[in-house]
Design a protein that fits this description.
This protein has about 180 residues and is mainly α. The protein has helices spanning about 5-10, 15-30, 40-50, 60-65, 65-85, 90-105, 120-130, 135-140, 140-145, 150-165, 170-180.
């Protein structure tokens, strides 16, 4: 949404780097079981090192591809775990709200985001409807399941979505990092 082309460039962007680290360490790693020889935090370091490597020319477009399977497969389990533990899922809610904004189909500079998901048409339609009612996005039970009924998450998502709409991606990330808006 910011026009950054590669994953390495994204991770080199200080607010994005700090956002990735904070969400991974504080909201995802506590839900991940250790594997032999590596703690979840060590794994976060491994991921950040890989993503930071400019020799690996992975594109942000490829990483963003198929959010309709990646969100339920990767983000939502950590959201469920965080809600069950009573810990913050604010960064994960912000990530999910970013996906919604992405699916609206325009970068912040006004350029079109080309369809990037097998379900793009319906995602785009619902993302546009979410402009006036962010709950519409969460009502997609095929992705969010019962999270649409969880008012804690729905409220965090709505706050995140409005912050993105009002301030843009970078300033929303900075607000999250600074603790300007945080609810658990």
């Amino acid at each position: 949404m910011l026009g950054i082309q590669t994953v390495a460039e994204a991770v080199a962007h200080p607010p994005i780097h700090q956002f990735l680290r904070k969400v991974a360490e504080q909201e995802i790693a506590p839900s991940v079981k250790s594997v032999p020889g590596m703690t979840p935090i060590q794994y976060v370091e491994l991921i950040i090192d890989r993503f930071s490597n400019p020799e690996i020319e992975d594109t942000t477009r490829r990483v963003a591809f198929d959010g309709s399977s990646r969100q339920p497969g990767f983000l939502l389990p950590s959201i469920h775990d965080g809600l069950a533990r009573g810990t913050s899922v604010m960064g994960l809610a912000l990530s999910s709200a970013m996906w919604c904004k992405y699916c609206e189909g325009h970068r912040e500079d006004g350029k079109t985001i080309e369809p990037n998901d097998p379900n793009w048409s319906s995602l785009n339609e619902v993302a546009i409807a979410a402009r006036s009612d962010p709950d519409r996005w969460l009502e997609q039970r095929q992705y969010y399941g019962d999270l649409c009924d969880n008012r804690v998450f729905a409220d965090l998502f709505a706050v995140s979505y409005r912050l993105l709409s009002d301030r843009g991606v970078e300033r929303a990330i900075i607000a999250y990092l600074s603790g300007e808006f945080s609810r658990s």
